[in-house]
Design brief:
Layout lengths: L29 H21 L3 H21 L38 H17 L4 H8 L14 H15 L7 H16 L3 H18 L3 H17 L3 H19 L4 H16 L3 H18 L5 H15 L6 H22 L4 H19 L1
Keywords: Metal-binding, Zinc, Zinc-finger
Protein name: MYND-type domain-containing protein
Organism: Pelagomonas calceolata
Length: 369
């Protein structure tokens, strides 16, 4: 996670908490700072300072750990392959191995995290150097979490490593910098992708607090609230998550209308929380209305469309009061979408695997009815 707690006692930090003069490590008070110095910070302070000070040093350290984890997890899949960017098996500088965590298949999509990060950074540098505008920033920033070959999001340990890569690239910028704020979101997404949910929650809370302090736009505030709601859900705070998701959906609907992708995503998040709280009919009612909109606006093979249909099928068959017609509809829905998910994302993608697993459970429920 990012540095939001006292280095000595791990208590949550205020924005203006005292800092080490040299390395900028933060403490909740001078007492903790002096205690930490006596307990060994004196030996590390210069090293942290040389590494770019506390936030940069920590980001670089977490990035290296995340890359090593991703390379190890992908080792079997990447045997005998080369990076599509630098064409080497081992990175020339870091000596890291290859990863692949997208929807590419066959010999496509293998790369070094360092190469992917450098490619994303170059694209963003071009935007800034040539003043290409906000639209270009939004489009190109997506390269930090989206494969340039299959155009699908990275997942799992690869997304986590790229999240840390993004954060270490922009953490040294001013707090209000657009790319630094985006990088905070990227590292939160990465932690969530590997189920480090308490760490992700810490990042989401810091993200929302930062945007509130800076006076962020309503659109940016809704995005931060949505991220926080997901983190609450993953850490078991279901009622808090539901309340925020309801407000985010309402806000998106007013700002962008029912056909905007952000509104549809907020609706699906809200429906997923209703499902988690076993409010099956409410979840079904919401998705019955909006699934056809997603299918028409985004297309049948879009990830959000698939997720909406998946949540709808679960709301049908998980309901203890489900009828035979409900179970049949759930099976039919999953049978219809499973081949699409495998075709678009590959059988090893988390979404495709989840849909296949759900289909088996739903068929079993129908057989037992």
């Amino acid at each position: 996670m990012i540095l939001t707690t006292c280095a000595a006692c791990a208590a949550p930090l205020a924005h203006d908490a005292p800092r080490c003069v040299r390395c900028k490590l933060r403490y909740c008070n001078k007492t903790c700072q002096h205690d930490h110095w006596r307990r060994g910070h004196k030996q590390m302070c210069k090293k942290i300072h040389r590494g770019g000070n506390a936030e940069q040093y920590h980001a670089d350290k977490k990035y290296k750990e995340a890359v090593a984890e991703a390379v190890e997890a992908c080792a079997e899949d990447t045997k005998g392959q080369t990076c599509y960017i630098c064409t080497q098996a081992l990175h020339w500088k870091t000596k890291e191995g290859l990863v692949r965590g997208c929807a590419c298949r066959g010999t496509a999509g293998f790369a070094h995290v360092s190469c992917l990060a450098e490619q994303a950074k170059i694209l963003m540098d071009e935007v800034e150097e040539n003043n290409l505008g906000t639209k270009a920033v939004i489009e190109r920033f997506g390269r930090w979490d989206t494969c340039s070959q299959c155009e699908q999001h990275y997942h799992g340990v690869v997304r986590c490593a790229l999240g840390w890569a993004c954060w270490k690239t922009y953490v040294g910028r001013p707090e209000a910098d657009m790319l630094r704020l985006g990088a905070m979101g990227a590292v939160g997404n990465g932690l969530s992708a590997v189920e480090r949910n308490e760490d992700a929650l810490t990042v989401r809370e810091a993200e929302l607090a930062t945007k509130r302090r800076l006076g962020g736009s309503e659109v940016h505030m809704l995005a931060a609230q949505s991220n926080l709601a997901v983190a609450y859900e993953k850490t078991g705070r279901l009622e808090s998550s539901l309340e925020i998701k309801r407000d985010v959906y309402s806000g998106r609907l007013k700002l962008k209308g029912v056909e905007h992708e952000d509104t549809l995503r907020a609706a699906n998040n809200y429906a997923a929380s209703l499902l988690g709280l076993k409010r099956y009919e409410e979840a079904r009612s919401l998705l019955r209305e909006l699934r056809p909109v997603a299918q028409r606006v985004l297309g049948e093979s879009n990830e959000l469309t698939l997720r909406m249909r998946w949540v709808y099928a679960r709301a049908l068959y998980q309901d203890p009061a489900a009828t035979l017609d409900d179970l049949r509809e759930a099976v039919a829905t999953l049978e219809d979408m499973a081949p699409t998910a495998r075709r678009v994302y590959g059988g090893g993608h988390p979404l495709a695997s989840a849909i296949d697993d759900e289909l088996q459970d739903t068929r079993a429920a129908l057989r037992g009815a």
